[in-house]
Amino acid sequence: MLDHLTVVSHPLVQHKLTLMREKDTSTASFRKLLREISLLLAYEVTRELPMTTKTIETPLCPMDAPTIDGKKLALVSILRAGNGLLDGILELIPAARVGFVGLYRDPETLQPVQYYCKLPDQMEDRIAIVVDPMLATGNSSAAAVSLLKEAGAKQIRFLCLLAAPEGVARMKEAHPDVPIVTAALDSHLNDHGYIVPGLGDAGDRMFGTK
Ligand code: URA
């Protein structure tokens, strides 16, 4: 079982994350680094996928070779920043099914409101990996995971680049069964809901918007 929180301390991940945090890193470099880190984080979040064997023929003989068991994975991106993690992971797991969840924050209640949700079929039989680079308040992440559960998903993991303690606590309270994999656990959220020290607005930095 993955722990509730796994911080991937691998030197390559930490080095690339430092480059991403720097305020003068260009949009092109930020995007490239995010894609590279997503591969390394995907390696960690898929570490305990159930395995089986299938009989294959090598050029020398038949063998029972290991293969991932069960239905194809479902990757679910929380729009829009989740898409920055999605592309790299899909290179590693090209057969995965992909879903999207769009949420915005109601300015009055500050609660997440769903504006888009398209998930793969048979979620009850798939392992789902929800991706969003920034686990800040945890409100939209918790809401996205609830949508997956409503669609029948039973095995869900959450993958992010940076997490704030507030977001981790929120997820633990709402979804204690969902392990979180991240590259770093930062100090806190500021008054505007940004992760500190963080890296700023992940969507703006990857898409070059303001
Ligand atoms: N979303 C971001 O893009 N950055 C933060 O620091 C928090 C939420």
Automatic annotation (TrEMBL):
Cofactor requirement: Mg(2+)
Cofactor note: Binds 1 Mg(2+) ion per subunit. The magnesium is bound as Mg-PRPP.
MF annotations from Gene Ontology: GTP binding; magnesium ion binding; uracil phosphoribosyltransferase activity
Entry-linked InterPro entries: PRTase-like, PRTase_dom, Upp_B, UPRT, UPRTase/APRTase
Positions of 5-phospho-alpha-D-ribose 1-diphosphate binding: 80, 105, 132-140, 201
Pathway: Pyrimidine metabolism; UMP biosynthesis via salvage pathway; UMP from uracil: step 1/1
EC numbers on record: 2.4.2.9
Keyword Protein transport: no
Highest taxon above the source species: Bacteria
A Gene Ontology term for the protein's cellular component: cytoplasm
Residues reported to bind uracil: 195, 200-202
GO BP terms, alphabetized: UMP salvage; uracil salvage
UniProt KW keywords: Allosteric enzyme, Glycosyltransferase, GTP-binding, Magnesium, Nucleotide-binding, Transferase
Residue ranges constituting the Phosphoribosyltransferase domain according to the UniProt record: 7-209
Catalytic activity: UMP + diphosphate = 5-phospho-alpha-D-ribose 1-diphosphate + uracil
Regulation: Allosterically activated by GTP.
Alphabetical list of NCBIfam families matching this protein: PRK00129.1, upp
Summary of the function given for this chain in its UniProt record: Catalyzes the conversion of uracil and 5-phospho-alpha-D-ribose 1-diphosphate (PRPP) to UMP and diphosphate.
Membership in a protein family: Belongs to the UPRTase family.
Entry protein name: Uracil phosphoribosyltransferase
Organism (species): Fuscovulum blasticum DSM 2131
